[in-house]
Amino acid sequence: MMLRPALLHRSLLRRESAHLGCWAALVVTLPVCFLPWAPLAGLAAFCVVVVLPGIAVARLVVSLNPEADLVEILGLSIAGAAISIWTLWAGAIAFGVSRPLFVVLPGLIACSLVTLQSIVRPRSPAAREGDPGAPTNPEGDGAGTAPRTSRRTLALLLLVSLVFTALTAVAFTPYGLERADGVHHMGMTDWHKHLVVASALGATEIMPPRNPFLYPVPSGPYYSGFQLLGAAVHRAAGGSVDVFVILLLLTLLVAAALPLVLYVLARGLTGNNKVALVAAIGGTLLGGFDMVVMAIHAAADIIGAWPLPNGLAGFRAAVPSTQLDFWAHHNERCFNPPYVATIWAPQHMLAVLISLLLIHTLRHRDHHPDRPAYGYLLPALMLAALPAISSYVALALAAGACSLILVDAWRERRMPWRVDSFARWGYAGLLAAALATPILYGFTRVGASGRLTLHVSSAAGWQNGAFATALLGDHQWSRLLDTPAFYIMELGIVGLAGGAGVWLLWRHRIGNRALAEASVFVVTILVLVTLVRPPVDGPNNLFARSMLIVWALLAVFAAEVWVRYCEKQWPCWVLVAVCAIAVPYAAIGVTLEGALFWPTPSDFLDAAHSINTETPPESVVAIHPDDETPAFGYWLRRRQVATYERVALLFGATSEDFQETQRALRRAYGSTDSATAEERFAGLGANLILVDRARSTAVPIWARQPCFELQHEGERFTVYQRNAGCVAPERN
Length: 732
What we know:
The protein is mostly helical. The protein is 60% helix and 4% strand. Helix 3 (38-64) packs across helix 5 and helix 22 packs antiparallel against helix 23 (513-531).
């Protein structure tokens, strides 16, 4: 049974008074954000910053395409996050950073968008003819049409969404787990970066903010839009909800949206709901053939450590941490399947979802003169926000769009600005460039991650497909020869079947123009990721996250091939089974990694809790460079003077900046009197000083009143608060 459009007419999204409901929700939730009860204030803040922009997008979708079904409405609603990010970033640049801005502005823009589409004259049914997404073929047999979704398909899609969300959530369950060896966090190192950045944005006074990992450096240009979204909810709620909880909820929202977006994309490209369902399931829950590589290395680790020691040491050898390292760090190309990318780098996955929705919404050109004036506003806002979420993904999408325009110009023998693809991508891009001016302003100081070079990176060993390198030596040309085998290993059955689909499309003209355009994006991004990288010795290896766009598009081609040729072939099912093992293996591995290893001393958590609850958000903490303070970024919700050099460089610092700050910290900690120490810590911007007595049990010489007051004292960690402008007795 098909979902009747009439059922959705009862929805508030279908009523002309929807804008009144949006304004009413905004008026109700704004005062709730200021209530002292944290859960309710946090829920209201999440509604204002995230939910209302999502509703605005859903209403725009319904207005532009009244026949849109529930799956398309839900899938496109994730674009509300992009609108909120653009609003927050641009508003902070224009009006400064303040809590009222974070509370009011996203909801205000969302309600304004709903009001805009309510007062503009809707299109007539004749004008809607040929719209992308209009269900012109209920059975979905025609290429390029969008079939209605049956209740059974909708239920299965929601089940896949629930399963993928649960798999994502389980990796975070070790956070806060107390064991005899200390308190544990998740088994993902990158999350310390997300938490530090969000905490810094939650206390910043300027945009772009100061470098979150090196406070004395003036600004930190980086694609921190996802963290800004979390910081906005945190700040709107008055800091009453831990930023970890907020970022986790945003990550789960991204995970839940992935299968819906893949379904909407595949249905729009192929016009077949069965193909779309296969693409959504396979593109969400499959990995690559590198599962075999991980098994080989795990066996080698066990053999190398045999006989295994007793206890956790032996268990770690049997279940090595490399189950995720092989997807995250072991080679420079660094492509990740969707599951690992979602739990490690949700900001890149959000950018990929926005990119896929842009490909979907800009598939066709609408020539109708009575098309609403705001028709290109949503794609332009999504494009404008994309650099703030992931500049790497934005660059890949821009390269794909430019290639599409050039290919159309060559095919039609016309100038590039006269082809249909330019009318879709070019005009939306020009409007987006104007809207993105505040965001691009934040990247005026380019960090190490922003400098690109022509370089074919390593593909690790022969197990990953680097056969030419293993036989002929490590050269740029041999790495290039390794590329096809490497991508087959990384992409698995999705790459094999998807590549076959692209070949069939061009060799035998099987498919439609929408699929042909998608293949241009696939080839362009593959070439870009292969040949263009950050500096060879640079600290950032995340450029290949753009390959997730390729993964999603290849999943559509693979689903087409699967339904046509492979569905009843048992060798195909064997390959699917190998790739399907990857996701549960990764989920189990990362959960055990966090639950059994990487403990944090309880005394440090007590010190961090004291700082988080008893000091203002704008406080800056000094930590001695030589102190081994484990996992500070997972627990401390205050900015630090200096942290890891690698991430400090990503945000625009230089190695000289970092080393000079480290030397200044050592000089401040080594001061022999209070007045000198106060001046040195003040010069670094620190007003809280953490002392680890594991290095020395004696109280520091400089820790005397009135320049310093004891803020927290534990068995190992002590925190002193600096009194600005004090006059020390030794200076009298």
